[in-house]
Amino acid sequence: MRKLLLVEDEKLIRQGIRSMIERSGVDVEEIIECNNGEVALEILQSTEIDVMFTDIRMPKIDGITLVAEAQKLDNAPLIAAISGFDDFEYAVAMLRNGVKEYILKPVDRNIITETLQKFEEESNSKYFEEKQNKNVAFQQLRYMLFYDNITKGEIENICLSIGKYISLQKFIVFCFSKKDDDIELTAADKYCFVKGQENLDLVICGAEYKEEIIEKLSNYYIGISNVYYNLMDLKQAFCEAAEMRRTAFETCQPIVDANTYILPDSEYEYGVKLMMQTANLICSNKLEEALEQLEIFVEGVKIRKYPMNEFQEQMKLIIQTTMKVYEKSLNNKKEEVFEILDMFSYQNIDEYMEVVHQWISRFDELVSDNIDEYKTGIKMQKAIDYIKENYSTNLNMAVVSNYISMNYSLFSFTFKQYTGTNFVNYLRNVRVGEAKKLLTETDMKVNEISKAVGYDHEKHFMKTFKNITGLTPSQYRNNFGA
Q: Do 175 and 244 meet the contact criterion of CB atoms below 8 Å apart?
């Protein structure tokens, strides 16, 4: 156990009990002593205590009152009362208030050891349970932040759950691309790190620690949200910080703060035609012209003439089209291509474009005369409609790509570009979304729902459902069912 509080007004008795604790064989990291209930209560309110041994008869605040006040704390310690009075009424009062053990004076060393061993076992069990609860809470937090198909009731429950671990009066969110593990971002009372998606991680930070986080993230390009006061606004704060991170990427500014950033006073113009021309030039082996064309678009992005999300989507389209043309030649270079698709793993657009330039410049020997042109939007919507109509069947990517007559590999890239996620995750989210409806709107059994949404094995369904929502199907029904 980490901390034990020993409350006893008689110094010699207190020192004797401390000596027994130290010789008990139970590992206690720190023993804190005090001689009255008033000071003990102040310690309990400011420090997380695992175990407390307290006398009953003490000045200022007696043991019975101290124990009663301790039970009101969020993290009440395990308590043993020590008394020189073999009085049934005292024992009853203490036990009613949450005391686990009642020890009579003179104190027996063996009783102290047995009590500590019992408390250690219970404390470890409590710690493990709390750790599990915290993991579930943060899993639900990620679900709230990164999934759109979520109800207001779910958000309220998740905020109540996560509020136990993020107790910030006002907060801001930092968004960045974490490239290494050598920075410390876990200090529960100040800030917490949450692993994001697509290389956009976040830190939820007490507003007063803003400069401290900026210093810790000095090697990164970061986006910062406005200040918020309610955890219900956490999703909005994240979206704001993510947008600022994208702005940092495209403008090559290390820090973009929503509180001070002003959008340029210019109209957005879409560069779809420009980027398609670039793709055609690459595939026609006119690489110098293609790079010149691409630079025009990049400069437009930097001055906010073209929106960042358009640039991101069109870069994916260029890469996918190029891969289709040079498919055989690129079979052994797929990891390299994935790195280029993963735009926000780079800190800014200049760094990213250096890699793209190198990649495009290597296509001199990979010339092809034919470019397959696909009506991407129509085909992808047809695929999505087919998934929504057939999610309850044994569906996979090969079936869907064949249905819309598209090459399996091209379908994989194009589907992710169109929906923002890969096929497996999309199908899983559709199935879980339908399962949520059935859990809250029907009285179907879990195994029936599992089959109804396309899972042959109930255990697989339950594991998938919990991975996404942070709750088992039964817990979800209990929390959100009518």
A: yes
Query: What is the three-class DSSP state of 197?
Result: strand
Report whether 206 contacts 141 (CB < 8 A). no
Read off the DSSP letter of residue 454: T
pLDDT at 370 over 60: no
- The 10s digit of each residue's pLDDT in 319-363 is 776 766 666 555 555 555 556 777 877 888 888 888 888 777 666
Q: Mapping DSSP to helix (H, G, I), strand (E, B) and coil, where does residue 94 land?
A: helix
Quote the tokens at residue 380.
């992808």
pTM, whole model, 2 decimals?
0.47
User: What per-residue confidence (pLDDT) applies to 95?
Assistant: 75
Q: Would you call 113 exposed, middle or buried from its count of C-beta atoms within 10 A (0-12, 13-18, 19+)?
A: middle
CA distance 19 to 127: 26
Collect all residues with Cβ–Cβ distance below 8 Å to 297 and sequence separation of at least 6.
Answer: 271, 274, 275, 278, 306, 311, 314
Q: What are phi and psi of 257, to 5 degrees?
A: -110, 125
Tokens 């129509």 belong to residue? 378
Which single residue is written with the structure tokens 């950033």? 261
- Helix, strand, coil percent content, the chain, rounded in steps of 5: 55, 10, 30
**Among positive and negative, which fits the CA dihedral 126, 132, 136, 141?**
positive
3-state secondary structure (DSSP) of residue 224: strand
Distance CA 311, CA 326 (A): 22
Lookup result for tokens 């968004």: 175
Give dist(CA 103, CA 111) in Å, integer. 8
* Residues paired with residue 193 on neighbouring β-strands, in sequence order: 203
Q: What are the tens digits of pLDDT across the range 114-168?
A: 999 999 888 887 777 777 888 888 888 888 888 877 888 888 888 888 888 887 7
